[in-house]
Task: inverse folding
């Protein structure tokens, strides 16, 4: 004797899951952009300023799934100031400002992602069959 199980609302549940994933992705991208903006502001406040060119060369970039902070290349000496290695400036492999600031922001970034995803999942209006 065979039994049949009918699942009602399966299509609606999968559609809701897809929408929820998109909302979580949008939240993650927003958090990435705001974290990059915070890192940018912090690094701009830390880099030495003579003419302001190096500070002005810091920028945020939109990358797949988020954002990044980098020197845009307009201050050709930014790498030497950031990392050193020649002409009396000690080499610092991890950089002096940009990478260390990004590393410090990483834990808060991950925590914000987890909190936002949990909040969105908990508050999502899941469909009733």
Result:
């Amino acid at each position: 004797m065979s039994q049949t199980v009918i699942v009602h609302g399966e299509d609606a549940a999968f559609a809701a899951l897809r929408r929820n994933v998109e909302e979580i992705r949008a939240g993650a991208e927003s958090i990435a952009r705001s974290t990059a903006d915070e890192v940018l502001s912090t690094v701009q406040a830390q880099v030495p300023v003579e003419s302001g060119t190096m500070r002005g060369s810091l920028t945020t970039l939109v990358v797949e799934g988020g954002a990044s902070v980098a020197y845009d290349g307009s201050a050709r000496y930014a790498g030497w100031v950031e990392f050193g290695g020649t002409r009396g400036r000690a080499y610092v492999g991890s950089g002096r400002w940009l990478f260390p600031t990004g590393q410090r922001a990483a834990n808060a970034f991950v925590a914000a992602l987890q909190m936002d995803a949990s909040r969105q999942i908990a508050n999502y209006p899941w469909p009733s069959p």
